[in-house]
Every structure is written in structure tokens, then in C-alpha cells.
Amino acid sequence: MSEAQTPEKSDGLEATLVGYQMAISLWIHHSEQVWARFNIMFVGHSIVIAAIGLIATSQRPSPLLAILLSFLGFFLCVLWFVLIRRGNEYAEYYTLTARELEERYLPAHVKTVSRGGLFADGKSVNLEIQGTKPLRMSRDARLIRVSWATYVTVLVFAAFYLIAIAMQFLP
To answer: Mind listing the pLDDT tens digit for each residue in 26-47?
Structure first.
């Protein structure tokens, strides 16, 4: 039996592969949860905004209720921001965990997660498909990262609520 195929090395590689697969699975599962939370919060805010709109356009508007709903919406924005931030930090943890396992323990030709960071930063990565195929993320796709787009979405909702609150106090 060669040095590369001893039972100890084989078991270590197998354990590493299991850990790597688990890190990738957790990353995928967590990402799905983050988007599910995002969608739920988006729908929730849409309902709150619709209620504020109905109150404002009703024949008997209730400024107090509009203010309360606006404060509720703003509070939900703070909560949403924290959930997104936590989700992004977990995603980074899972990504870096998978990358660590990939770079330290897997064969050198396994570079899926490692190259992903370079690709996201706009650097060219080489794929070995019928020779070498360079691949680079386009400039427009790199303009705004998904995490920042989600923060902007929360800020837009928060701004709406602050404006709705301010409008209740303006003559």
C-alpha cells in the first residue's frame, strides 16, 4: 500500500470530505433560511405599509394608528437589519469553514470555494474544461453585493416609516 493510500490517510480524507460536505450543506441550508426570512419580512412590511396607506386614505383617518404602525414598521426594520447581519456573518463563517477545509485538507485540484472568493472579487479564475477556460464575473454583476442590496432594501422601508411618522406631525 502506498503512502497516499494508507488507512489512516484514507480515513482522514474521508472525514475531511464529510466535514466539507457538511459545511457546504450548512451554507446552502442557512442561505435558504436567510432568503425565507427576507421574504417573510418583505411581505410583512408590505402589509404594514398597505395598512398605513388605507388609514391615510380612509374617510376617517386615524393619525395615532398610522403613527403606531409606522413605529412598528421601523422597529421591524431594526429587527430585519439585525437578522440580515447575523445571516451574513453565518454565511461568511460557513464559507470560510468550507474554504479552510478545502485549502488545508483536500487535494490541490479541489478549489470550488477558494476560487469563489477570487471570482466574486472580479478576478479571473481558470476552469479546466477541454483545456483551460478563464472565467470572470462581469463588472456590472460586481457593482452591488447581495448583502448590501438587502441592507438598502431595509433602509428604504425604514425611510418610508420615518417619513410617515414625520408627516403625521407636519401641518
So the answer is: 889 988 998 999 999 999 999 9
Q: Please list, in sequence order, all residues whose beta carbon lies within 8 angstroms of the beta carbon of residue 16, skipping any fewer than 6 positions away.
A: 101, 105, 106
Q: What is the largest CA-CA distance in the chain?
A: 87
Q: Which helix (H) or strand (E) holds 132?
A: strand 132-135
In whole angstroms, give the CA distance from residue 129 to residue 78.
Answer: 46
Amino acid (1-letter code) at residue 149: A
Residue of 14, 13, 8, 19 whose CA lies nearest to 99: 19
Query: Model pTM?
Result: 0.78
Of the candidates 79, 52, 78, the residue with the CA atom closest to the CA atom of residue 165: 52
With 50 as the cut, is the pLDDT of residue 3 above it? no
- List, in order, residues 6 or more apart from 135 with CB less than 8 Å away: 119, 124, 125, 126, 127
- Beta-bridged to residue 128, according to DSSP, are 132
Determine contact, residues 80/152, Cβ cutoff 8 Å. no
Of 128, 165, 120, nearest to 147 by C-alpha is 120
Q: Of how many residues is the chain composed? A: 171
Amino acid type, 171: P
